[in-house]
Known about the structure:
- The chain is mainly alpha-helical.
- Helices cover 75% and strands 0% of the residues.
- Helix 5 (61-70) runs antiparallel to helix 11 (188-199).
Amino acid sequence: MKHLFLQLKNHAVFYLAAFGAILSMAAVPPAAVYLSYLNLPVLAILFCLMVVIGGLRESGVFSVILARLLLRLGTLRQLAGVLVFTCFFVSMWVTNDVALLTFVPFTLLSMKNTASEKELAVVIVLQTIAANLGSMCTPVGNPQNLYLYFHYGLTLERFLFLLLPYTLAALVLLLVFIFFLPQRPIALSARLAARRARNLSLPASRRQLGVLGLLFFFSMLTVAHVLDYRVTLLVVCVLTAWTKPQYFRHADYWLLATFVAFFILIGNLSQLTVFQQFLVSSLAGHEFLAAVVASQVISNVPAAILLSGFTGKAEDLLLGTDIGGLGTLIASMANLISYGSFVRACPARQGYFLKAFTVLNFAYLGILVLLAAGLREVGL
C-alpha cells in the first residue's frame, strides 16, 4: 500500500493524464486515428536528449568545470553568483531539471560551512529561478519548449526573437538579487570541497565523452530542422547500445508516457465539436494569461500540451508556459527537485524555504508578466 501511494504521489501527473485519456476513449473509441495524435518528432528528440544529457551528467564533467570556477572565488556573493548563473546558462542546453539535479547538491556541499541555512535556502531558490528562466531561451531547455517548437513548426530565429528579451531581463533581475547577498569571505572548507571535486577523475573516458558530444551535436541538428529525427533516434540508440547501454536508464519514461497520454486525451477532445468550440472561444484573446494560470495549477508541461490543442497562438502559449514555470511549487516540476534536495539537507528550514520560494517566485513572475504586457503593447 505504501509503495502504491508513493507511485501515485511521484507520478501523479501521468496517472491523471492516463485517467483522462481512458475516459476520453468512451467518446472516441480507439482507432487508427490515434496514431496521428502522437507527435513522434517530439517524443524521439526528447528521448535522445534525456539519454545524451544523462550520460554527460553521469560523466561528472559539469561538476569538475564548476569546481575549477569555485577555486577562483573569495566571497559568499561571488560563490552564490557562480552557482546561480551556472544553472542559468547550463540549463539552456541540458534542461532545467538536469541543471538542478547536477548543481543543487554541489551547492549544498560547497556552502555547508560558508552560509547559514537561510542564506542557503535563498541561493537554492535563486538557482531554481535561474534554471527555469535560463532554460526558456532555447528549444531544448525544457520539455514544453521542445514540444511547442515542433508542434507549431517554429523556426529557430522566431523562437529566439520571442524569448531573448525575457532571458536578458531575467539575467538582469538575477544580478540585482545576487547583490543583496553578503560579501563575506568563503570558508576554507568550501575551497577544499571544490579542490576535491576538481581532482576527481571523470567516470567517462575521452572516447565516451566524444561519443556523447557527437550525439548531442546530432540532436541539435534535429532541433535546428537540419536532420530528420529518425536519423538522430537511430544513431543515438545504436551508439548508446554499443558503447554505454546503461545510459538508457536516464530517459524519463514516465514523462514520455505522460506526453503520450496527453496526446491521446487532447486528440480525442479535439474530435468533440462542442468541447473544442467552447475551449477555443474561452482561450481567444487570453492565451498568454491562460497559460500562466494553468501552469500554476497543473505545471507548465501539461499546460502546454493541453492548451496547444485548442489555439494557434504559438508565441502566447510558449511565453505563458515558460514564464508560468515561476510561481507555485508545482508550476514547474523542476521546482520539486530543489525543494526535495534542500528539505533532505535542512529539514528544520522547510517552512523558510517555502516562504522564500513563494515570495521570490511570485516577484519574478509579476515583473515578467508586466514586461510581457508592455512588450506586447508595443508590438514586440
